[in-house]
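dumping this here so i dont lose it
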């Protein structure tokens, strides 16, 4: 949802930052790689039990990653390679966050299983879209695009880090909403396919 609508709303914030980065010679690839590195750093903090700081750090990395597209357009350097790198960076960052959460919850089997299911659904959401687009169909949509997934889990981690006892409800909400998103995308793709 935010992936589709949020870009226009975020443009007034991201465009001036992208302009500043362009002036000092930063490339979109550098922004993507730095964003991923910061996200992975946040995941390490989460794994180490620093949930507030880990969520904040990973959120900073995700925000940095949102700058590569506007910067590429500003520099007229948008390319298939850049889009591919950005997509891989998105998946790796998301995996890192869930691995960090899994390491943190390793002694709580029920919550660890929820993390694994959450990661599986998180990877299925873009997979269904990619399969739909490979067939020339529209595979976008659903409640939990990447932006929503990262906002929910990282703000949730920060809240847990501040002492709120919401880890299990957070994981259940994530699993249910992300699972429904997978189902929404499958249904949308199925309806577009010829019998």
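and the seq i came up w/
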């Amino acid at each position: 949802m935010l992936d589709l609508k949020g870009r226009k709303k975020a443009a007034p914030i991201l465009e001036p930052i992208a302009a500043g980065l362009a002036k000092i010679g930063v490339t979109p690839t550098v922004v993507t790689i730095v964003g991923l590195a910061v996200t992975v750093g946040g995941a390490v903090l989460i794994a180490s039990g620093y949930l507030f700081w880990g969520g904040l750090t990973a959120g900073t990395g995700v925000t940095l990653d949102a700058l590569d597209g506007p910067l590429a357009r500003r520099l007229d350097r948008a390319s298939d390679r850049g889009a591919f790198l950005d997509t891989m960076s998105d998946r790796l960052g998301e995996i890192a966050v869930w691995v960090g959460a899994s390491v943190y919850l390793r002694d709580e089997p029920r919550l660890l299983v929820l993390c694994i299911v959450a990661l599986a659904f998180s990877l299925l959401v873009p997979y269904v879209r990619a399969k739909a687009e490979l067939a020339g169909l529209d595979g976008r949509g659903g409640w939990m695009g990447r932006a929503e997934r990262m906002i929910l889990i990282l703000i949730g981690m920060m809240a847990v880090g501040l002492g709120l006892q919401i880890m299990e409800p957070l994981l259940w909400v994530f699993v249910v909403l992300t699972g429904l998103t997978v189902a929404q995308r499958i249904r949308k793709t199925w309806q577009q396919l010829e019998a």
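The mean pLDDT is 90.
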